[in-house]
Amino acid sequence: MKKTIASSLLLAFVTITATSQEKKELDRQAILDMCGCYDITFKYTETFAPEIDYEKKLDYTAGALELALPIVNEDNEISIQHLLVVNDTMVIKHWRQDWLFENQAVYHYDKDNNWVFSKLPSDAVNGQWTQKVYQVDDSPRYSGSATWVHVDGKHYWENKSDSPLPRREYTKRSDYNVMKRGNRQEITSYGWVHEQDNDKVLRKDGEGDVLIAQEKGFNIYTKVDDSKCQLAKDWWDDHKDFWANVRDAWDEVYNREGDLTLLKKVDEKPIFMHFYGLEEKGATKAEVLETINKFVVNTPINSNVEGQ
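Structure (tokenized):
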């Protein structure tokens, strides 16, 4: 009898393990399905404001050609670098998204260029993937942990996470300082969609968040032939070593596991503008970290690899 019970428990364990592994592979495939060459349409419209005298802002619509490259593809980590192709003649390094399986270390945006570090309990992230989104200079933007869902032919991941103002508004708006992003990434037959339900809120110390307006957003990624993004592939081959140094330098900052506050400007320039000169000369990790440290309000980080 005992042998039968033990055999049944072993079979159940093996079944659960196999099912979990199959689920994880579905997750990984969904994430990798976001890679490729895409025509993108960005659409945003404000839908609601609690104050009757609020003046609804104009809808935002834009388009782009973008390459999404898998620069890391490991069992528990996938990193996707996005590159914009402008007028078929110029490439701009765009945002990056990292996906980490059952990750516990996250930075949550608070306000005023401050990110609060937290360590999530292991049981809270069981089977989940953390999406970490970075700016064009690989500084932090937002992150969140959730479960990929595969049901009824649908494959999606959704999460609510605070972030700084989007690039389309951070130089135009001062009435709110935090965007509470409702993110949904869904894989489709033609590519994928980043659907958003966002709250634009004003956040002050010691006070509750004040909702200014809500908006709906759709970033629609339609896959096109890879040849359209050949310029971006060639550009990345020429620049990937420098950006590997940048990621390594930022990791020195992120791995310290403490709250992070960044200055918005140094010498009247935001951090991404400082990177132009560094990229042009192919700066080392140590040189990049020296520049990053000028923006870190908290204790600066020392490189543990001299001259790398």
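Confidence is low (pLDDT under 50) at residues 8-16, 303-308. Residues 2-32 form the longest helix (31 residues).
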